[in-house]
Write a structure and sequence with these properties.
Helices cover 10% and strands 45% of the residues. The radius of gyration is 38 Å and the shape is rod-shaped. It is mostly beta strands. The N terminus is likely disordered.
């Protein structure tokens, strides 16, 4: 159950929650329990061991619980660029002392629940503001004291450099090289056909005029994200006359037409995604 206390030896603590948040059967103390003050040297020694350079940022927070699971809450300002060590000690009768910390949105950002009456909690806030600290006795009850100490936070690591831009792939050069090897002396007909696949099974259709008495090579190449590129060719009556379902990003098919007219070329990215091109060569 929650009870509200002010820190001992000063008035720097910010009032916490409305008294309505405290459970009715938990007595509301009128001030620090005197025996809590005797715990301050132990709080200091524990903080010195945990963070030798730490500086006390406010008077010690003193309280006492009168039943197991008793708790006390405080609001305190924390600053970005500092790291804080919260040192808590439970006195006679306290067997377990827990510390919890919530941010401005009441999201718990740190917890320490040791099986002993001595506890330290460390937190380095990313945002300055008022935080909510709670001390809670697990097993047992009695006096407790908490000190808050700060040091400069270590410098933040520099963000990693952005990845280098991808090296452009010369798809036209790949296609021309394939044509030179497969059909020496062939010349390209028109410009390259270009497409982009956003996912597998994307396809593009183009049309070109073919003439009898010549042979044609249709060569396609995909960028780094294209894994399988298929090519198909239909004649003017939409009969498939050639295809190549390659399991690589480079695909090639050939055809020597006997019927003149407008032929349909289809490129399909069966696996992967990215840019691709198709060139038509004639000899």
């Amino acid at each position: 159950m929650k009870s509200v206390h002010a820190p001992g030896k000063g008035t720097l603590a910010v009032p916490l929650f409305a008294l309505a948040m405290a459970c009715s059967h938990t007595p509301t103390p009128t001030g620090p329990v005197p025996s809590s003050e005797t715990l301050i040297p132990l709080v200091e020694a524990q903080a010195q061991k945990a963070e030798p350079a730490g500086q006390l940022v406010a008077p010690h927070y003193l309280s006492a619980t009168t039943e197991e699971d008793g708790r006390t809450d405080w609001n305190l300002p924390l600053q970005e660029g500092q790291c804080y060590t919260f040192s808590g000690i439970g006195g006679q009768g306290v067997k377990q002392l827990y510390l919890y910390l919530w941010d401005q949105a009441e999201k718990r950002v740190a917890t320490e629940k040791p099986e002993r009456p001595a506890v330290t909690l460390r937190y380095c806030p990313d945002v300055s503001g008022t935080y909510h600290l709670q001390a809670k006795t697990g097993e047992g009850f009695g006096p407790l004291a908490v000190g808050v100490y700060s040091v400069l936070a270590p410098p933040k690591a520099a963000p990693p450099p952005p990845p280098p831009p991808p090296v452009p792939v010369d798809l036209s050069g790949i296609i021309d090289s394939q044509a030179a090897a497969a059909a020496p002396g062939a010349v390209r007909v028109g410009d390259y056909f270009r497409g982009t696949a956003k996912s597998g099974n994307d396809r593009s259709d183009w049309f070109t005029v073919l003439e009898p008495g010549r042979c044609y090579w249709f060569i396609g190449a995909g960028g780094p994200g294209v894994k399988e590129l298929y090519l198909y060719l239909w004649n003017p009556t939409l009969q498939r006359v050639s295809d190549n379902r390659a399991n690589t990003s480079v695909s090639m098919m050939g055809h020597c037409p006997t019927v003149p007219g407008m032929y349909k070329i289809e490129a399909k990215v069966n696996s992967g995604k990215g840019d691709y091109q198709v060139g038509v060569y004639m000899r």
